[in-house]
Specification:
This protein has 487 residues and is of the alpha/beta class. The protein folds into 3 domains: 148 residues, Roll (Elastase, domain 1), CATH 3.10.170.10; 202 residues, Neutral Protease, domain 2 (Orthogonal Bundle), CATH 1.10.390; 95 residues, no CATH class. It has a 5-stranded mixed sheet with strand order 4-5-7-6-17, with helices on one face. The longest helix is centred in the middle third of the chain and has 25 residues.
Amino acid sequence: MRLLAETAPTPTPAPPTGPVDSVFSFNTQDRRVMEPGTKLIPGVIQGAKKNPETDKAMLNVGLEPVDGKYVYGPEDPRQNTAVTFSSVANTINVFREAFGDFKWSFKYDKLAVNPNGGKDFNAFYARNQGTVNFFAEEDPIFGRAVLSGASGEIVAHETGHAILDAIRPEYFGAFRSDVGAFHEAFGDMLALHMSLLDERVIKRVLVQTGGDLKKPNIAAYMAEELAQGLNNKKGTNATGGDFLRNANNNFTWAEPKTLPEKGGPDKLGWEIHDFSRLWTAAHYDVLNGMVQQQIQSGIAPDVAIRESNKELLKMLANLLKEAPRGDFTYKDMAIAFIKSDKIHADGKHVELLQKVFTDRKILPADLPAETLEVAPSREQARLFQSEDEPAYGPMKMTLGEDFGMFSGAKVEIPVASDRLLFKSDELQEQTQDDIRRLIQAGRIRYNDPSYQMKFPNDYFNPQGEPYIGSVTWEDGQMKIERLAIAH
């Protein structure tokens, strides 16, 4: 009897040792608006836990490809994981192409992506942990899980916090509403730009608007599925529609201390998410203005939207190169935006920028022309600063006796170095007013001297909002420090 020789099994190819371009499930919107598609993410490696990584981001859970792709069906929980990671990686790659490379503000080389943080209608960035975190909660009306990581808009927003923190880390040291609100607006602006890089979104926006972006559209609406779940949970239309925020609004600037904490859908408030809607709207106005200029010159609406979006994204990246150091107002940032356009684009959009910021009352109509002049060189712009001095430093103060249990606390805020040369009673009074409002709103956490805060629970108040600051102690002295966390 002749025995057939046993065929040796074909060896399984070893996984690639170097980075490879990999296809992922991907969505720039969320599932309520648009089903996930796919996206090629360059430079992906498999980490030690069989988790995909790039040079700037890493998934903190294992995820193995199927037939060489990280693409999964709608009922497969891995789809959410893949969408979350690919949205983070793509947002980083797109902004880095516009801005240049940057280094994270935390001690790790890579931003850790946590797609399954637990039950909540929430998502947040935490500097000390070097993470962006996403959650799931059931919509009580539709009985479907709302996955914050499945929304490319939410993921881009949280990744935006990490990017801005890398470029201007001192912004997480200021208590002024304008600074925190710009952080939130930056996340929404980045989400808007990422969305309009998707041809499917442009097609939907064209159907909805015909090119007039002042008409309601999915690009202007932020986080529709999460907002719907939140509104259904509260039993009221708390957000003003099936969106968390709407960039297409009519808000104009008012002194934050004259506003309520939260104004609601049609009124501005001083709380940073609430107040951010004003800056986001101004940015959106600039986008619409650029689109209309192109359409009026004979360019097709889809091309006008596509090219204006790319150009404004580059302008946003350039703004961060010229943005104020330390504490600032919306007015300061608007002036920086106009100067940035002069520096990087020969003032191509100065007229539009000034009109938008004036119409939104962020800039006064009688702003002196010399305020917008650009110094002939960066050295002259830093007249009082030597090359080896930092761009900003701490301004120190002590809270007065009318702050209750927080009285006598030491506070430091970051201030541009040239402003530190001149002690500003006005800035100190402003900071004390800001902290007083935050204390009254329950956004400053008190801790006893021996207490060590536990992450993440101690970083959020009973309403699920991150504390803006918390009490620490040093040699028996109470201090209030800003927390580097944002959602």
